[in-house]
Structure formats: structure tokens, C-alpha cells
């Protein structure tokens, strides 16, 4: 049987961590429940240890002092050995009852990542009280689907199931809540198979509060979109920038051309200098885009060769 590890990053989740652990432990008695205590200042660690001991759960507690969900999951991916990895939030918003369908979809579709889709029935929109967060989700989804010609419905879902191959070949480079977006981008960019499966989503129980900040994280969403554009589609990013600079250069050069056409003399010298600078910068930008696009292609080529030679045995196959 495949060894399953349920990864639960937790930051100040004393009100929900016990119920989350028990929910997954009762549904999958053979699964390893891994709680990553991400520098919590409340009783999250104490309650986790007590729950593991009291209910004799096959659990592991790891303390990660570096703040951020990405750091917590990165630590788990490095230290935990399993055949199938499950990532879920520790706030009772995701249900263990959906996990059998997610794991089944992983196997039947030979997928690398299964994403729990919260949006299929409007559950996330109805349950989540922070409307700006929903708008941010939709904005990032539209942008990624447009760039990668994909049809994903829930880019930022925190409920996911991965194969060992994906986990052990995925470098986590972000720090915080951008993790889910980065996972999706890595999968799409590197050609991994991503399948979405419908799940039930519930808002946090009363008394439990989200660690996300609407305005602060809204700015992060905008930065993430720019970051996606620049790193994953460099030719598009620098190509559009080059076009913008080019037409700005033409616009600023119009009075200069008009001077020369009428008077055979240039009176708008500052505009002539500006338009020349914009044209040169446009050419440089286009060159950068071409170079980075070529570099990105070679990186994908090397990564594909690495996957073809990936022979790491699954824990269940080791003696």
C-alpha cells in the first residue's frame, strides 16, 4: 500500500488543530499526520502533542521558526518520506471526507497534482466573508489561465494531493501565502499533469481568525501577477514593455519630425533626446526578452531530462 502523509501547516490554530487532526486520522488510520508548527505563539504545539498521545495517532510534530506557510511546507517536503503527499490547512475549512476522491483521482488520471476545487458550486464565495480575497482569486486565475492557455478553476486552493515525483522535484522558492500559486505555476510550466476535483469548503469556525490581511495581501496579489509575467513568460513581459516604449518614443518624436518637415530644423531638442532614449530602451528590452526566453527554454529542457532520469524509489518499495 502507498504510504500517505498528511501535511498540516499551522500558525496559531489552537482552536482548530485538534479537530483537523482527528478528522484526517479517523478517515485514514494508516496515514502519517504531520503538523508543522509555524512559530505559533498560542497552544498549537501543546494541543498537537496531547492529541497525538491521547488518541494514539501516527503523528509527527515539526517546529519551523521561519514565518510563512511556504517555509512550513518546504520543511515537511524535505523531512517527510511518503508515496502520496496531502496538503491541507489546519483550520477545519477542508474536510477529510473529500480526500478519498482526491487520492482516487490522482491514481485514475495518472496525475501529478490534484487540486481541491472550492469554486465549482460557489461554496467559497458564499462561505468566505472576505470578498476582496475572492476577487483576488478570480484575478490571478484569469491571468494564469490566459498566459498558460489552461482551464483551472481554483488556483489558490490549499487542499492538494501530490505524487512523490512532484514533491521531490519541486523547489519551493516563495515564503508565504503565494505557495499555492507557485505550485500551480511550476506544474503548468514544467508540464506536470494537474487535475481539479470538487470539494466541500467551509468557513473557519466561530472564534478562529484568518492570518491573511486584505489590503497587505491584495498588494501581494498584484506583485504576484507581475512576478508570474516576468519569470514565467519573459518574452511576453519584456515584449509588451518594448512595444510600450516604442510607441511612446514615436509619440514623443512626432513634434520633432514635424519640425524637420516644416522648417528643416529641430526646435524640440529635449523631445528628440527623449524619443531616442525610449527607442534605445525599447530595443534593449526586446533583446532581454529574447535572451531570457531562450534561457527559460533550455531550463525546461534540462528539467525534462532530469524527470526522465528520476529513479527515486518510493518508501513503500524500499526494504
TrEMBL record:
GO terms for molecular function: transferase activity. It holds the Pfam family Glycos_transf_2. The chain crosses the membrane at residues 237-257, 269-292. Keywords: Membrane, Transferase, Transmembrane, Transmembrane helix. InterPro entries: Glyco_trans_2-like, Glycosyltransferase_2, Nucleotide-diphossugar_trans. The keyword DNA-binding does not apply. Residues 6-165 form the Glycosyltransferase 2-like domain. The keyword Mitochondrion does not apply. It comes from the Bacteria. This is Glycosyl transferase. It comes from Leptospira kobayashii. The lineage of its organism: Bacteria, Pseudomonadati, Spirochaetota, Spirochaetia, Leptospirales.
